[in-house]
Design a protein that fits this description.
The protein has 11 helices and 2 strands. With 293 residues, it is mainly α. Helix 5 packs across helix 6.
Length: 293
């Protein structure tokens, strides 16, 4: 029973991190109906930046996370302005997906030129003490990681609900032409979505890397797959769906890795995805879009 709760806690922590990575991906799709294939490479860029700041420059961890997250957000916004903005219209949908792949490869190769493709030892940011509660030994690092991830999810939700730009994002996600007629600056709002998506993704990447003490170039592609899978499970375009999808994915992966085998973690997880889509093709909280005639 103790092992079960340990595995569940780690799964919830990983799920919260996956949610951070998924939010930006899901929000971009909800507005533009565009698969942002560069999302994972942007977040791994920020994670590598934090690695350099922590190891080569011995920067304070909080300052390193803030700088890396901001740079990740700026890179995501630049990618949107340079690679996606002029191809935003419906007739350019397929071209924009190819451009997204191109942007992903450019960032990926730039990351490889700078940091290589080997697994690098990511430093531990949080102290390694443990708490003892009801017979369970819970590492403090896991509690802090979970608290940070959940905290940013709550802050982002409050931002969307109460901040003017958050409300603008929700309006744009509903209908871009109508939002434009209401005076909402579409380009600026979409750039903010990319910036926040990149920022949250980098924070998720740093939390994941410090939890497992490793960072590598391959995590960028896997981050894109994770974001896509979690968004599909929860209902792509839904913030609540991103939370549910990320949690399900994190918990499922962890239980499969511990109780079955880490070699079967991804196949069983994707089998679970197929089962969900067979039962509800739009995802758990997804809805069928009604087209007006």
């Amino acid at each position: 029973m103790k092992m079960f709760f340990d595995v569940l806690l780690v799964g919830i922590m990983v799920g919260a991190i996956y949610t951070l990575v998924t939010i930006g991906y899901s929000m971009v799709y909800s507005i533009l109906k565009l698969m942002n294939f560069a999302h994972g490479d942007v977040y791994i860029f920020g994670t590598f930046v934090s690695y350099t700041l922590l190891t080569a420059h011995n920067l304070n961890p909080i300052a390193a996370i803030v700088i890396a997250a901001l740079l990740g957000g700026v890179l995501a916004s630049v990618v949107e302005i340079v690679a996606y903005r002029r191809l935003r219209s419906g007739q350019h949908r397929m071209i924009s997906m190819i451009t997204a792949l191109g942007a992903a490869y450019v960032i990926q190769n730039a990351n490889e030129l700078k940091w290589g493709n080997q697994v690098l030892p990511f430093p531990t940011i949080f102290k390694a003490d443990a708490l003892h509660f009801l017979g369970l030994t819970i590492p403090v690092a896991q509690i802090i990681t979970l608290a940070i991830a959940v905290g940013f999810i709550v802050l982002f939700t409050l931002f969307l609900k109460f901040h003017p730009y958050g409300k603008a994002i929700l309006c744009v996600s509903e209908d871009i032409p109508t939002a434009s007629l209401m005076g909402i600056p579409i380009n600026r709002t979409i750039s903010i979505v990319y910036f926040l998506g990149g920022l949250l993704g980098v924070i998720g990447g740093i939390l994941y890397s410090t939890s497992y003490n490793a960072v590598s170039l391959a995590m960028g592609f896997r981050g894109t797959i994770i974001a896509f899978t979690a968004a599909i499970i929860g209902g792509i375009g839904s913030l609540s769906g991103a939370l549910i999808g990320g949690m399900i994915l994190g918990i499922c992966e962890n239980f499969v890795g511990v109780y079955v085998s880490s070699a079967y973690r991804d196949p069983i997880t994707f089998l679970f995805l197929i089962v969900i889509l067979l039962i509800k093709p739009t995802g758990i909280l997804g809805s069928v879009e009604q087209s007006k005639v």
